[in-house]
Design a protein that fits this description.
The protein is α+β, with helices and mostly antiparallel strands. The chain folds into two domains: 143 residues, no CATH class; 166 residues, Acid-sensing ion channels like domains (Acid-sensing ion channels like fold). It is 44% helix and 19% strand. The chain has 13 helices and twelve strands. Strands 1, 6, 9, 10, 11 and 12 form a six-stranded mixed sheet that branches. It has a two-stranded antiparallel sheet with strand order 2-5. Strands 3-4 form a two-stranded antiparallel sheet. Strand 3 and strand 4 form a beta hairpin.
Length: 401
């Protein structure tokens, strides 16, 4: 008996130990020991059903979490920032646009506003000299008189055509500003491109990208550029603008999405502008203009534009796009589902992997070896068998006496 047991122990040491009973009763996963050790068949069936149901529910929940993660949904975090002072939006720099001369105030970003409200921002009184206008209906010119203004960040070129606001002569126009900072994610969560750059502008902006896109198509087709576009290329003549530039711009308008690929910038600073106005001069001040300054009231109303640009509040809103499900949150969800329905942890998964590897190794390297090689359990069964045989032998002898 001793020799046989030693041989079995030596053989067990050489062969991989893959006892299903030992694994089921020792694993940290909940329910396996109950299912294996229960003496009643009904109890075994109930525990097996519970383990199976828990596994199915956990897998289904994890599938839905993966599906939600790979939709790359986002959430928006809105923060109110309280600042002591704000940089005033874009002394004067000159540019030429399709609307004519354009002057940018505070282009270098050196001016800040530390008090909110009218009188603490930019105040302009502009003589538009309407008597020098040369508009003509025969040429299809605009009928209006006044100025357009665009409140924008210093890094963004003026976009009068798309974002301009109007101020008319004979009125005092108030432009109240509210700042909004927006941060957008790159793919797969958002449409922005952090590496996007421009040739003529230091900071990438959508308006700058559109400007350069139009310029490149004009240069390719006409070999020159209109004066309002950046760069050192030759300026187009009036004939070239009429015969070449205008058709190119019309084609771009019709096929803009295909011809101009301008991704959204990842960081954008915008100023929401609310415009109100009052008539000037009043009846009382109109008389004083005539008496003190010898200014004709009718001429004043036709030619003077008064503009006040100011920050309505020093506080501003910061909008930040964030992933709805971070990788860490996904891992936490997976662990939570397995932990709730199966009692699993990361180490439990390692236990199952180890058991699977040892089982495969046993069948591949020891094809004649039974998976169950627990020597102690086998010896106990053999001892119980011998005791039963001994008892039967005793009973047999007593019966025949």
């Amino acid at each position: 008996m001793t020799s046989t047991r030693n041989e079995k122990e030596d053989k067990a040491k050489e062969e991989p130990h893959v006892s299903i009973e030992t694994f089921a009763t020792s694993t940290s996963a909940h329910g396996f020991a109950r299912a294996y050790q229960s003496r009643h068949l009904v109890a075994k069936a109930i525990w097996t059903a519970l383990i199976t149901a828990g596994f199915i529910v956990a897998v289904v929940q994890i599938y839905f979490r993966f599906a939600a993660y790979f939709r790359y949904d986002t959430t928006t975090k809105i923060t109110m920032v309280f600042a002591k002072e704000l940089q005033f939006p874009a002394d004067f720099t000159h540019a030429f646009t399709s609307f004519g001369n354009c002057y940018t105030f505070n282009a270098n970003g050196s001016k800040y506003q530390d008090q909110e409200g009218i009188g603490n921002g930019l105040h302009l009184e502009i003589n538009i000299q309407q008597y020098l206008y040369s508009n003509s209906l025969l040429r299809g010119d605009d009928l209006d008189a006044g100025i357009f203004f665009h409140v924008h960040n210093q890094s963004e070129p003026p976009s009068i055509e798309t974002k301009g606001r109007a101020a008319a002569p004979g009125f005092r126009t108030y432009a109240g500003l509210s700042r909004l900072d927006t941060d957008t994610l790159e793919p797969p969560y958002g449409p922005c491109n952090q590496s996007a750059s421009l040739q003529y502008y230091e900071v990438y902006t959508t308006s700058g990208c559109i400007m350069e896109c139009k310029l490149n198509h004009i240069l390719e087709a006409c070999g020159c550029k209109p004066m309002q576009y950046p760069g050192d290329a030759r300026e187009c003549s009036l004939v070239e603008e009429t015969k070449c530039v205008l058709p190119v711009l019309a084609n771009i308008r019709q096929n803009f999405t295909r011809m101009c690929k301008c991704p959204v910038p990842c960081q954008v600073v915008t100023y929401q502008t609310s415009v109100t106005s009052t008539a000037v001069p009043s009846l009382s001040t109109g008389g004083e203009l005539k008496d003190i300054y010898n200014v004709d009231v009718t001429s004043y109303k036709k030619n003077f534009v008064i503009l006040d640009v100011y920050l309505e509040s020093l506080n501003y809103v910061h909008s930040e796009q964030q992933p709805a499900i971070e990788p860490g949150a996904l891992i936490g969800d997976i662990g939570g589902q397995f932990g709730l329905f199966m009692g699993f942890s990361l180490l439990t998964i390692v236990e199952f992997i180890e058991f699977a590897i040892l089982t495969v190794f046993a069948f591949v390297c020891y094809p004649k070896t039974k998976p169950k090689v627990d020597v102690a359990v086998e010896d106990a069964h053999e001892k119980e068998k011998n005791d039963n045989n001994k008892n039967r032998s005793v009973d047999y002898k007593v019966f025949f006496r």
